[in-house]
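Handout, tutorial session.
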Amino acid sequence: MREWWKTLALGILLVGLVAVVVEGQQGGPPLSNSRAEKPIEVSFTTGSRGHILVDVVVNGRDPVPFAIDTGAGRTVLHQGRVSDLGLVQRASEETVQGAHEESALGFVDVESLSVGEAALGPIELATMDLSHVESDDMPLYGVLGFDVLSRFDILLDLGNEKVEFYRPAVSLNGCTVCEGGIVVPFELVMGTHIAFEVTISGTPIVAILDTGSGRSGMNHLAATAIGVELPPTSPGRHGPALQVGEVHIGDDVLARDLMVGVVDLPAFAALGVAGGPAMLIGTGALVGRRVGISYGVGHLSIR
């Protein structure tokens, strides 16, 4: 059971730094692309726990793997890798709420950061310990969070393992990543995390898109609402696995026979959704799909 919930350890990071992100980091340098009319296309690999890993160049050094994490409020560098990149961390007294527990936080200044042709720096990165997410077959230097991802409209092609970065659309009609399939509006809870409504057994549930996790999870209120009675679990503790039949977005099926973990994560409370049925949608629910995220017009597409 413990192994199941390791896959949620990366998602929903840095919800305690929303104000810093919105005031100091959102926006940043414009998309740098010599082919302005075309997207920037980058290949990714899928980690053994479902993480979407892209090569990131920090200060002109050799590329290193970062995870694309819509569940992270800010871009983060693994504290255990700071010296590997020739950087110096600034200590702080701040902590941050992760999926299960709080972690110590630091900061580091990066002169340049890039993914493919997308120039993302200079930028101040948060630092925290991500060693619990790494494995022997998945070294991890950091995660790309909201402050970077929100500069673009993004198309994640999980079948062909590539991601496309577009200039943010200014209208739904001009939104390339919103074309086809399931198209629904989303809200940014706490200003950073993509939230939309799904239904299971006819019950509406607030869903948070969390590409920083391979698995999906729900709170006990969601399990009870769909008719599953489970013993209570202490906040942040590992919960049982539950198979749900169909997860719907409107009249469309997002996933069938989805396995979810059931636990009242502190992150649900930090995001303000713990008072009702809530769940995290990880990449395991999206296998083979093309997922479009338009931060420009606030719409999500799944095809």
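The second record follows below. Compare its token runs with those of the first.
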Amino acid sequence: MINIPCHCGKNIETEFSSEIDLSASKQVYQDILEGTFMSFECPSCGNVIRTELKTVLKDPDSGLNLLFLPELERINFVTGKIDSEANSVAIGYPELVEKILISGEGLDERAVEIIKFRLLLKAPSTGINIVFKSIENNNLIFHVLGLKENETGITKIPRNVHDDIVQNIASLSEDEDVRMIIEGPYISVSKISLED
């Protein structure tokens, strides 16, 4: 049983499992993508509170073993104060959605992050955020945030670029920045800083 404080001053008491088997609960997969995962309705006022709780998500069918951490735990994880036996880590809800999409599409998250890194190197400024969104017509679709205020750019990368990166991951990891990005279990371009 967990207690989640509501804005009305009451607590929402609910059952929540800190380890979820996605193959046994396909609805959780949909809830994550729709943004309703970890959303709880207050019985007192009816408000829906969305929270982030440390959770392990597993899918034996795909080999996914993902540790989800709340955004507030980012520094603790990056500085080594939180250990993980998971083969993948997502910090904050947006990363969770992205990692679940990547796994669901059968992509290699290392290759996706390397593509994002290459795109960021070509970006005209800092403060750009690139997010994987889907596969359409054999292209990986990325949303690019921060190029223009209140606008989202879209870029398409052919699937074969992803596949080539996977085949050449060993040689690509000789680059120090790439190695830092893909060293697991937290595989993310956000681990490096790109400056002008």
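Points raised in discussion: The longest strand covers residues 129-136.
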